[in-house]
Design goal:
With about 290 residues, this protein is α/β, with parallel strands linked by helices. Helix content is about 55%, strand content about 15%. The chain has a five-stranded parallel β-sheet with strand order 2-1-3-4-5, sandwiched between helices. A three-stranded antiparallel β-sheet has the order 6-7-8, with no helix packed on it. The protein is globular, with a radius of gyration of 23 Å.
Length: about 290
């Protein structure tokens, strides 16, 4: 999901990295992102990760226990045509003779100051992500994944008929759009809650379903409405220099694209990701036919 912020971190002292990682996790969480760290103790397999994973930033120690030093790893990364920004740190900083010519996009820093430089670079990237053209792509991509997840949940409700339901309903062209899929899932949860209110009013399942449905009730406004506005509505330039868009529907709202509102959008996406994962566990635990 695009609300993840993936970092490739190479350092042979994981015990020193973990406290820094926790500080970054808490800091990024307030900005609406989930930190994902791909940790390596040496440089042996990092090219594989760069080829297979969507890495936003590389953090690298100079002195490593393996055969390669940090500067050799940087040279290999650039030779393989990977151009992510790199935080290159060492205790006491990086000596000038390590590189005859500093590579583009590599930031030398004392290890004690690394966390601040990491935050500054991430902040710069996040501010760029507040640009409307970039935000459109990110949110639309996340919404597509959430729509796919809802389709999987609907299929799960039909157990042994899941393949038939997918082929005849979900994959039938033009039959179910995003909003209809959400309304069907919300209706299935509503029916199950009504049934449990009669048959098992003290069931833990009932309590969990009610909590999940309360969040699912906001899905149309917080995900589908935002996705549709970003995908289809023309932006209007404000006197402040910022842009705004207008959601569609009877209760249309104007959204000013600010960093604060972008945090809210990302937090809502993450909330619904987690909720749909919880709904999946509930569906898998019960007979819904």
């Amino acid at each position: 999901m695009k609300t993840d912020f993936p970092i490739l971190w190479i350092d042979d002292k994981k015990s020193l990295v973990d406290p820094l990682k926790k500080r970054l996790e808490d800091w990024l969480d307030k900005k609406g992102f989930t930190l994902v760290v791909h940790f390596h103790a040496d440089g042996e397999k990092i090219i594989d990760d760069l080829g297979k994973k969507d890495i936003e930033l590389i953090i690298l120690d100079y002195k490593l226990r393996g055969a390669k030093t940090g500067d050799q790893i940087i040279q290999e990364i650039r030779e393989q045509s990977y151009y992510q920004d790199i935080i290159f740190y060492s205790q006491g900083g990086i000596h000038n003779n390590v590189f005859s010519r500093p590579p583009d996009g590599v930031f030398f820093v004392d290890k004690n100051d690394a966390i601040q430089r990491i935050k500054e670079l991430i902040d710069l990237k996040i501010n760029r992500l507040s640009d409307l053209s970039i935000l459109r792509g990110w949110i639309v991509a996340d919404a597509i994944e959430l729509e796919h997840t809802i389709g999987e949940l609907l299929a799960l409700c039909f157990k042994e008929k899941a393949s038939l339901f997918t082929a005849r309903i979900l994959e039938a062209e033009g039959l179910l759009d995003f909003g209809k899929k959400h309304r069907i899932l919300n209706g299935i949860l509503k029916d199950k809650i009504s049934h449990l209110n009669i048959t098992a009013p003290r069931s833990p399942l009932l309590e969990n379903l009610q909590a999940s449905k309360k969040i699912l009730n906001t899905f149309d406004e917080e995900v589908i409405g935002i996705r549709n506005a970003l995908a289809h509505q023309k932006a209007e330039l404000l006197a402040t220099g910022r842009k705004k868009i207008r959601t569609m529907g009877k209760q249309a709202k104007e959204i000013e694209i600010t960093p604060t509102h972008c945090v809210s959008i990302r937090n809502n996406i993450r909330k619904h990701q987690k909720n749909l994962a919880a709904v999946k566990l509930l569906i898998e635990s019960q007979d819904w036919t």
